[in-house]
Sequence to fold (1059 residues):
Amino acid sequence: MNESPPKKNHRATRIRRRLLALFIDWLTWGYVAYGVMYFLNDYWWRIPLERFYTTLTLPPWGWPAAVLGTLAMAMICQVTGYSLGERALKLEMKEERPLNKEELLMGRAMGKPFWRTQWGVMAVFLLALTVALGWHIVKIDIEALLRPSRRAREMLGEIFPPDFRYFFASDPAFELRGLPYSILDLMMVTIFMALLATVLGAAVALPLSFFGARNIMGFSPAGWFVYGIVRGFFNVFRSIETMLWAVVFAIWIRWGSPLAGIMALTIHTVAALGKLYSEQVEGIDPGPVEAVVAAGGDRLEVIRYAVLPQVVPSFWAFTLYRWDINVRMSTVIALVGGGGIGDMLFYYKNEGQWALLGAVVATIVAVVWAMDYLSGRLRERIT
Amino acid sequence: MAEPYLVVEHLTKVYERGHVVALKDLSFEVQKGEFLVIIGLSGSGKSTLLRCINRLIEPTKGRIFIDGVEITKLSPRQMRKFRRKIGMIFQHFNLIKRATVMTNVLTGRLGYIPTWKTLFGIFPRNDRELALRNLERVGLLEKAYVRADELSGGQQQRVGIARALMQQPELLLADEPVSALDPATSHSVMQYIEQMNQEDGVTVLASLHFLSLARRYGTRIIALKDGELVFDGAPEEIDDQKFKEIYGEEAEEVEIR
Amino acid sequence: MPPKYPETYLREKPSWMAWERIADFLYFGFKTLGKRLSIALLDVGGIAILWILTSYVIIRLSTGEIGYALVPWWTFGIGVVEIAALWESFGRSFGHRVARLELRRGDGGDPALHQRFVHWLLWHVSVLPLVGLLPTPPLHERASGLALRPFTMEGRTPKPWWRTSTGLYVAWLLGISVVAAVSVTISWEDLVRLFTNAGSTAKFWRSFFSPDTSIIVKTVRALVVTVFMAMTATAFAVMVAVPLSFFAARNLMRGLIGRSIYTVIRVAMSIIRSIEPVVWAIFFLVWVRVELAPFAGVLALFVHSVSDLTKLYAERLESIDPGLIEAIAATGANRLQVLRYAVIPQIVNPYISFTLYRWDINIRMATVVGVVGGGGIGQDLFFYLKGNLWTQAGTVMLFIIALVWAIDYFSARLRAKLA
Fold:
């Protein structure tokens, strides 16, 4: 049931796909070259890996050689067998033949097992290379994991049982802007931050999402333009992490202000929810839309009576899901100046007060877990 | 009369600690080579009955004999062995959608092949030959290496039949085999089942929605209503009166050709 | 044909002393108890939250301090329970609404006032000590002649939300929450700065257009470390999460032992998941030596990924099509074969898709984990921010955004292909 590409661009598509496959192979070989260089550095000359790029200097002809060499390898791979790039794009090498029952019986049509094809060997090799590289780059050290440091043993000794002394009462040593806070107070602040961010974010994302839906905006140039702008906004702002936004707003407003955290969460919420909402709007059943249009409804009436009833349950579900995420994020956003319980968390961490830290973490776990459970149950109920 | 092939004695199935009764004290016998059609409304217990016969669902009470073996007494391991003799096809085909037709058909042999081999997807050569012969029989040889979800509904059900054929069954359970198909395709699928019944001598128990199909293919009909047996006899014995008894007062008979 | 069946069934099933009867009593008893109890808990809890929030706002707005109690705790306790009891007896409470039930007379009619009164009085005797909920129907419902019936709109006209108690409750809760939230998180000075102080971030935006080229090589190297941190953490997490997910799927774990394993794993995973990777990174930075910064970050991501992936995988396992399992079992296949031919084909693609998704998240998280010293690009970013090196910080952020965007794009494309 695969749709075949339109006949008109068949040739152009084929050439483009062929080039793309070559590019993928080129990239894989580039990656292999990188890996080889890495290990050469590490093992042959025993140069500490921190000084990698700075010590290994290629001669002037080295870079062109590397680029062309990897390209040549990619080409050789494409010619000699079913390469990884070809496999990824599912380019067929052989022309089709009528079915032969004898061949069927011999199992030839089943194809070789993947570990005997070129792409299979390459994939396994790349996987192994990645594991080896990863092992060295992130400095995996199982021994250090199994034998914790003295400080870790101290921490473990203190953290159980956690000290809930400052759950209701405020800790005299800890204050924010001259006000004393207990764990409970800050937890409320944290939950409220998430609440405001979710409400604000959803309120902004809801109208925007209709402008980011293909089927609502129509196919006129103006429609395309608005659609492109809104979708672009969603995509760009979504790929900037909440934490980075928090940095910006902490400079903008004030380090440690809950409002900075709220703004950061809100912006990310608008972008993330907007994308989810508009995808949902695009996926509606066109039947009711047709019915409303047939009854003489204009665009707003279509949205009100044909689109909204279909998307409201999933809008709620997405919003609850986002609320859940926002609660999690708001517990640590203080790290970059966003306010909330994280302030206390990182304060106790810096002071090395493990028992008190344990109480904060336990509270966070309880609250996040409860919110997770509640939002999960509600979502189940809605959809 | 010869020893019946399948005997169901006082079969009862209750769900939810006795508060939902799916089958109530059902008893009947089936001779070897019969084409028995089970009719009844949705929820009358047809599917439960079929699944009790190969113990995909454990009966609450009652005994079932197949070929003189009391299968309700078998241990799970013995039952798995015994199921090789019982083929089954389903309303929604239940194929591995992402696998090829060939793999789907070969799964019919799972009970005959050592486990470790099947885990790696290795099937003996003669099983593969058998699979191709069965695919040829249902007219799908060309599609052997096509993914199952690329086939139409009727073709998928024929793959299901081929899978059942791989078991070389003595008994075929067909759970509404044509309910998800359109009328024209229904007949072609039913004809393959009829062929199994007449040429291979497989005893068939099929549940069907349409009375006209039941009349056309069945040699005997039983009817269930709310888990009880309300009719047992030849197809032509069902008149208007009987029909209303089975399907309720408001029902009208629909022809399917 | 045998219509005699139900009588024989009842005759054979003996009287009070039979185990089945006792088991039935407990089974259905706990079912009613569970339902009534969760309704009561919802109502009592809901009112308690509303009460506390209202007091919170009153205290906050009148004194400017943070406090939760306007009245002594016992007044609060009795008040909350009493309001819940009244709500459940004289109206359709929040809990009823959630369970889609309503209070009706035994014959289906509207409850009379005296019946509601009896219901309210006996509610205390039967719900508060819990055992009153074991018999079916529970004591207070039996005595008042009322019963909880599935709610239906048949033969009625809807009321607008502001004339239903639940509608008013939810509106009040939402309104008071927003008031409380605004009053405690947003101060006037902050709001003024939000609208007047945007210029202070200009130094940041400027660096986006004139990045510091001297740190590019260093930044790219840190990016590579970040990508590999995410990759390694994901890879190891998959190895642990795939086998675990089979033990965390409700439909595969049957029986007492199976269910207990299921529960233990699910609870442990949700606790681990509740702690953000940043907090895990703090923990692991103490655990392993500080020089091993990327390793500590990987461990943090790994732990969080395992719990998240196990949940995602297990949920996927729980929603597989049982028809295929039936079909394969019907051929006489054993358990391993059913797993291989009925379960695995259904989960391979979703598993890969979830893994990609998690890798994508891990890259984002890896940048954040670096901020507490977990290695990779986040560490650089934090260093520059601490030193007020805005140009460099902006450059690093530019790289992070580009990386996250690219990974996000490719993983979305791949996942769309897999679906």
Residues 5-162 of chain C form one domain. The first strand of chain C starts at residue 101 and ends at 105. Chain C touches chain A through 66 residues (CB under 8 Å).
